[in-house]
Design goal:
This is PoNi C-terminal domain-containing protein. This protein is of the alpha+beta class and 335 residues long. It has eleven helices and six strands. The relative contact order is 0.10.
C-alpha cells in the first residue's frame, strides 16, 4: 500500500484520479472568479451564474481534498471559502432576479439539501460556528422554521432557532432526526447506524450518485467522495459512542475525532469581528476567566475560570424536562 492509499479516507479514490481532478477544480475556481458565464440575458445574470459555478467547484474541491486525506487543520482554514463563494452567488442571484429571499440551495432537491446540511455540519465539526449566521442569512428567508434537521443542527451553534416537526425528505432523514429526540443513547446510536445504512440508496437522485463508477480521466470527474457528514455532526453533538458504525464507508469518523479533540485553547485569543465570539463546548478547557453563556438556553451566564473544564448547563431539554446537558458556551464578558 502506497502513502496515498494509506492516507485517503475512502477506497474509491485513486491517486491518479485525484492528481488529475484536483488541479482542474482549482483552475475552475480561479477561472470563474475572473469571467462571466456565457449564458444569461443580463450582465448580472451572467455574473450570478459564474458565481454559482465557482461555489460548486469550491465545494467539490473541499470534499475531494477531505476524501484524499488532507489535514483537517488545513481544511478548517479552507472552510470559509465555501461560505464566501456561496454568499457571493446568493447576493448576485438575488440581485439578478430581484428577490431578496431566494436561497442558494433548494431544499426540495435532495442533492442541494444534502449540501446545505453538509455545510452546517462542517461548521460544527470543524469548530467554525462563526460561519453559521452567514449560512442562515442565506437560507433563513426561505427555510426558517420549515425543516427539523436544519433547525436542530443550527440550534447547537445559534440562539433563537425553531422547534418544528416537519422536514423535506423523509427518506433517509427521518432516522437521523429521530436520533436527536430519543430517551437513551442506545436508541440514538441505533438510529444513526440505520441512517448510514439507508443513506446512499436514498441519494439516488443526487447528481453525484454512482459517480465512483466513472472516477477516471476518460469518463468524468463527478466523484469527490460520499460522506454523510450530518451523521457525524449528530454523533458529535449528542456525544454518542460511534463504535457500532465507525467503519461505515460513508461515516467521516476523522471529522468526529477532530471535533472531539479540538484544542479549545486555540480559541482563547481575543476575537475580532471577523471571527465571531469565542465558543467552547462542555468538557473542554476554559480559555479565559469570565462569564460564559450557554448558547440556545435562556439561563443566566456562569463564572468559569481559565483552565477549568466547561460545565454542563441545567436547563430544559427539547421535551421541556429540566436536566444537566452539554452546551456550547459563548464568552460574554470578563469577570
Amino acid at each position: 500500500m502506497d502513502d496515498f492509499e494509506a492516507g485517503r479516507r475512502q477506497r474509491f479514490l485513486s491517486k491518479r484520479y485525484y492528481d488529475w481532478l484536483l488541479p482542474q477544480l482549482t483552475e475552475q475556481i480561479e477561472y470563474w472568479a475572473r469571467h462571466e458565464a456565457p449564458s444569461g440575458s443580463t450582465e448580472t445574470e451572467r455574473k450570478a451564474l459564474a458565481a454559482r459555478y465557482r461555489a460548486s467547484y469550491a465545494h467539490r474541491r473541499f470534499l475531494l481534498e477531505f476524501t484524499g486525506g488532507k489535514s483537517l487543520i488545513a481544511l478548517r482554514d479552507e472552510l470559509p471559502l465555501l461560505v464566501d463563494t456561496l454568499e457571493s452567488y446568493t447576493t448576485l442571484n438575488r440581485d439578478a432576479i430581484k428577490d431578496d429571499s431566494v436561497p442558494p440551495l433548494m431544499f426540495g432537491e435532495i442533492g442541494e439539501y444534502d449540501k446545505a446540511m453538509q455545510l452546517i455540519s462542517l461548521c460544527l465539526l470543524l469548530h467554525r460556528t462563526e460561519l453559521l449566521p452567514r449560512l442562515s442569512n442565506m437560507l433563513d428567508p426561505f427555510y426558517r422554521a420549515q425543516d427539523t434537521l436544519y433547525e436542530d443542527l443550527l440550534s447547537y451553534g445559534m440562539d433563537g432557532r425553531y422547534d418544528v416537526d416537519k422536514w423535506f425528505h423523509d427518506r433517509p432523514y427521518r432516522l437521523l432526526i429521530n436520533s436527536f429526540y430519543r430517551d437513551s443513547e442506545e436508541e440514538s446510536i441505533r438510529d444513526i447506524a440505520a441512517y448510514l445504512e439507508a443513506w446512499y440508496a436514498a441519494m439516488n437522485d443526487a447528481p453525484w450518485h454512482d459517480s465512483h463508477l466513472k472516477a477516471n480521466e476518460q469518463e468524468g470527474g463527478a466523484y469527490v467522495g460520499y460522506w454523510a457528514v450530518e451523521a457525524a455532526a449528530a454523533t458529535f453533538l449528542l456525544e454518542l459512542d460511534d463504535t457500532p458504525f465507525r467503519d461505515h464507508v460513508a461515516y467521516p469518523k476523522d471529522l468526529v475525532d477532530f471535533a472531539r479533540d479540538f484544542d479549545a485553547r486555540q480559541q482563547s485569543q481575543p476575537t475580532s469581528l471577523d471571527t465571531g465570539p469565542v465558543t467552547v463546548r462542555t468538557g473542554q478547557i476554559c480559555p479565559e476567566t469570565g462569564i460564559w453563556k450557554a448558547q440556545g438556553h435562556n439561563v443566566p451566564g456562569v463564572l468559569v475560570r481559565q483552565g477549568e473544564r466547561m460545565p454542563d448547563v441545567f436547563a430544559p431539554d427539547r421535551n421541556g424536562t429540566l436536566r444537566q446537558q452539554p452546551a456550547l458556551w459563548e464568552f460574554e464578558r470578563k469577570a
